[in-house]
């Protein structure tokens, strides 16, 4: 998410960064050329580059290689003339906003470009698209795809030439199964209807005909005789770089492939039981089933299926990646994918998937994918677009035993915050950083700095109250925030920077027992500012090393008392000028 222009300019003015450091997918800095003609051509090309992506801002009067006051070279350009020249030099004509801006005694011109309604070119027919901080030439097939998307054409609504009689019987059974268990009565009532009526209601037929559209054929029809139409390929490896020990390929229809692939992933996923302090029973996995389901559903809905390239899945104990054909839908990037409005590539297919119950009703499948991964105690997934002749979109999940302390902490937050993606991502971020500001949080939650500040303030002053402003910044407009003491105690080892040195912990416990004779769970909580679970783990570890042993008749609960075990260090005493050796604390 782009920061406000004034905030960005202040970083350049302070010398913290140059314009080139701050340029990206939505921001470009320019200086005037030697002539108005040269300048107008340069700005027109920069503007159409943004318009062919997802829009952006051009600031004229900043040298992108300099820092501090030297970067502000100013400009005398007339915004009205620039607007007119950009309109004249692009095809179809591109309308932009342009205005003069005074900043620290310098005159700049700010040009704001929206996402285009078509693919824009120069008068010579050259088309470029903004990718990160570069303007890259567009290939003919890319121009055709974006043109179709922006005109609202939907390939999945067109006739596939397949008749209702060609629907795969197994796929029909899977379809009715999904409808029977759907969450809404409107969906469940479709399950017992005759197949033509079901297909009509789901929008899988060409209007006024018995022929399936492409969406219906993809979901329900197998390949024609003699054809090969792989829709999904799954590979499992025992290690990330090892040989495949299982490869499964599914031919169309996609509905069968979707269900069977999820079952296959589930059978190779480890689950971990977890109980919260309120007695709630949770089941965690090294890959969140809900997050994987959303990712696979998105790949099948939003992938570019016209070239008949399959969705591929690479699965190992360390990671799972889902690769779909084609780039993200025009206007959506990895940097705005969480907050950009729903924009399916194929509307008819997306509507049918939602009606069947395989996609989020409000198009927030990606939002849910991030949310469920964090709630399961895992890292957030990553999304990347691989450009080239056959572009692909890759969603990757990292695995490993879930962070149970974080998962328990999130499960015990107020209900509204448990399902708030911003709150979960901020909590996850603070497990690796001692404090954060709104500026640092904004790109993580993909919102403005103002929205990030509001989210931080809510987590500090609202029902959750898991954060607090740091003492030195509490009076600032955008303070730095950290976990409160009780939050840190509950999170324990989930917070990377609060891990304790075992030798120091041992010494504190040993000194306490020497002073008081015994120790219990409640005492450990006070000594180390941890919760009951962390104290329990510490006691079990010390008992396992025979430094402590249970000395009370009570065997369960927080009040069980522990005293010196067989390997409890003896206190050093002077004898003939020598100290008695102590047993080592760590071995």
Layout of helices and strands, plus pairs?
Layout: H1 5-14, H2 19-22, E1 27-30, H3 36-51, E2 56-60, H4 79-88, E3 90-91, E4 97-103, E5 106-113, E6 121-122, E7 128-131, E8 134-137, H5 140-150, E9 159-163, H6 169-180, H7 185-188, H8 195-201, E10 211-213, H9 214-220, E11 230-237, E12 244-251, H10 254-267, E13 271-275, E14 281-285, H11 289-302, E15 311-315, E16 319-325, H12 347-356, H13 365-375, E17 382-386, E18 392-398, H14 404-411, H15 415-418, H16 421-430, H17 438-445, H18 449-461, E19 467-469, E20 481-483, H19 485-491, H20 502-516, H21 521-528, H22 532-544, E21 548-550, E22 562-564, E23 574-575, E24 578-579
Parallel strand pairs: 1-2, 11-15
Antiparallel strand pairs: 2-5, 3-6, 4-5, 7-8, 9-10, 11-12, 13-14, 15-16, 16-18, 17-18, 19-20, 21-22, 23-24
Name the overall outline: flat
Top-tier CATH class of the largest domain: Alpha Beta
Largest sheet: number of strands, sense, barrel closure:
6 strands, mixed
CATH-defined fold name of the largest domain: Heat Shock Protein 90
Number of domains: 4
CATH architecture of the largest domain: 2-Layer Sandwich
| Cα distance spanning the termini | 50 Å
Round the mean pLDDT to the nearest integer and report it: 88
Which strand order does the major sheet show? 12-11-15-16-18-17
Number of helices, where a helix is a run of at least 4 consecutive DSSP H or I residues: 22
- Strands, count: 24
Low-confidence stretches: 577-587
CA-atom Rg in angstroms = 30 Å
SSE class: alpha+beta
Strand content: 15-25%
Give the proportion of residues in helices: 25-40%
């Amino acid at each position: 998410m782009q920061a406000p222009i004034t905030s960005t300019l202040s970083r350049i003015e302070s010398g913290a960064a140059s314009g080139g450091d701050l340029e990206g997918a939505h921001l470009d800095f320019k200086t005037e050329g030697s002539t108005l003609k040269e300048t107008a051509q340069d700005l027109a090309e920069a503007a159409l580059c943004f318009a062919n992506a997802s829009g952006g801002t051009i600031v004229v009067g900043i040298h992108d290689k300099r820092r501090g006051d030297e970067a502000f070279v100013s400009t005398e350009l007339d915004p009205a003339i620039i607007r007119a020249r950009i309109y004249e030099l692009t095809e179809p004509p591109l309308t932009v906003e342009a205005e003069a801006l005074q900043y620290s005694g310098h005159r700049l011109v700010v040009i704001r470009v929206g996402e285009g309604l078509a693919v824009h070119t120069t008068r010579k027919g050259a088309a470029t698209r903004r990718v990160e901080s570069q303007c890259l030439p567009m290939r003919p097939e890319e121009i055709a795809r974006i043109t179709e998307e922006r005109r609202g054409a939907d390939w999945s609504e067109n006739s596939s030439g397949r008749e209702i009689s060609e629907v795969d019987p197994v796929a029909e059974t899977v379809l009715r199964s999904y409808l029977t268990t759907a969450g809404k009565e409107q969906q469940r009532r479709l399950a017992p209807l005759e197949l033509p009526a079901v297909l009509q209601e789901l929008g899988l037929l060409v209007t006024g005909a018995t022929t399936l559209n492409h969406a219906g054929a993809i979901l329900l029809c197998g390949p024609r005789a003699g054809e090969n139409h792989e829709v999904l390929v799954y590979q499992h490896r025992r290690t990330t770089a090892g040989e495949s020990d299982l490869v499964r390929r599914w031919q169309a229809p996609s509905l069968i492939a979707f269900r069977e692939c999820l079952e296959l992933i589930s059978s190779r996923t480890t689950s971990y039981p977890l109980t919260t302090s309120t007695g709630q029973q949770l089941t965690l996995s090294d890959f969140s089933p809900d997050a994987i389901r959303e990712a696979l559903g998105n790949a099948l809905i939003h992938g570019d299926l016209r070239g008949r390239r399959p969705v591929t899945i690479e699965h190992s104990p360390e990671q799972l990646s889902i690769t779909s054909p084609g780039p993200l839908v025009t206007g959506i990037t990895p940097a705005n994918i969480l907050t950009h409005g729903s924009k399916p590539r194929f509307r008819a297919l997306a509507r049918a998937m939602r009606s069947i119950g395989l996609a989020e009703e409000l198009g927030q499948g990606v939002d849910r994918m991030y949310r469920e991964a964090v709630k399961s105690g895992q890292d957030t997934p990553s999304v990347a677009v691989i450009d080239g002749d056959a572009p692909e979109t890759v969603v990757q999940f990292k695995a490993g035993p879930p962070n149970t302390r974080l998962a328990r902490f999130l499960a015990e937050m107020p209900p509204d915050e448990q399902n708030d993606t911003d709150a979960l991502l901020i909590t996850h971020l603070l497990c690796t950083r001692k404090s954060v500001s709104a500026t640092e949080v904004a790109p993580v939650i993909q919102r403005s700095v103002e929205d990030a500040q509001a989210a931080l303030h809510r987590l500090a002053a609202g029902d959750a109250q898991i954060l607090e402003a740091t003492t030195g910044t509490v009076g600032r407009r955008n303070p730095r925030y950290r976990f409160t003491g009780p939050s840190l105690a509950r999170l324990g080892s989930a917070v990377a920077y609060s891990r304790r040195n075992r030798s120091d912990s041992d010494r504190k416990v040993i000194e306490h027992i020497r002073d008081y004779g015994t120790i219990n769970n409640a005492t450990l909580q006070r000594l180390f500012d941890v919760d009951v679970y962390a104290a329990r783990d510490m006691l079990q570890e010390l008992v396992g090393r025979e430094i402590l042993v249970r000395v009370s008749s009570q065997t369960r609960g927080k009040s069980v008392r522990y005293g010196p075990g067989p390997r409890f260090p003896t206190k050093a005493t002077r004898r003939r000028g020598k100290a008695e050796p102590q047993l080592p604390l760590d071995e």
